[in-house]
Amino acid sequence: MTSHKTARRAGALLGVLLAFASGVANAAIPASSKAVKDDGGKYFDAKGDPTYKISPDGKVDWYTFSGFRRYNGTCDVCHGPDGAGSSFGPDLTDALKSLSYSDFLGIVSGGKQDVNTAQTLVMPAFGTNKNVMCYIDDIYIYLRARSDGALGRGRPQSHEDKSKEATDFENSCMGP
């Protein structure tokens, strides 16, 4: 093997390792999740649903990072670390592959109950919980990035700064 081929293979391996180290599992973002609009640091897809933006170095937008924090403050108790599921709640990274944004909002705010002869699954309603509902888009954005494979497991390594718009919305939603 020539040194040129060895160098190319080493470079390719280094690129893969850096991608995983930065928390980016798969740099190819599905077309349906691509950000086409930026509204004060909050990104939206072509349908107008909130989405993520991850730079090639693995830096995530503020809302994805906030969603990671909020998910781990409330949702991980039942749905497990990184949305991967547990014995109490389903894998949300899989569920979001077929769940629309509006369906996600409805389930989180109103709850869900599936009862059959084998099991009883209950998702409580969080519609009056400001710690969830004020950050529902953030949680959705984080889980969407995880579901698409664009964001790896664990805490994102770096993130954009929190925008004034995000601060203003948080203050108005959480209230005095």
From TrEMBL:
Region labeled Disordered — which residues?
151-176
Domain Cytochrome c, first and last residues per copy:
35-147
GO MF term list: electron transfer activity; heme binding; metal ion binding
Give the signal peptide range.
1-27
Return the Gene3D superfamilies for the record.
Answer: Cytochrome c-like domain
Query: Record keywords: Transport included?
Result: no
InterPro entries per the UniProt record, alphabetical: C-typ_cyt_methanol_metab-rel (IPR022411), Cyt_c-like_dom (IPR009056), Cyt_c-like_dom_sf (IPR036909)
Q: Which domain of life is it from?
A: Bacteria
- Keywords for this protein: Heme, Iron, Metal-binding, Signal
This protein's record includes keyword Transport: no
Basic and acidic residues composition bias: which ranges? Answer: 157-167
Name of protein: Putative cytochrome c protein
What does the organism's lineage look like at the top? Bacteria, Pseudomonadati, Pseudomonadota, Alphaproteobacteria, Hyphomicrobiales
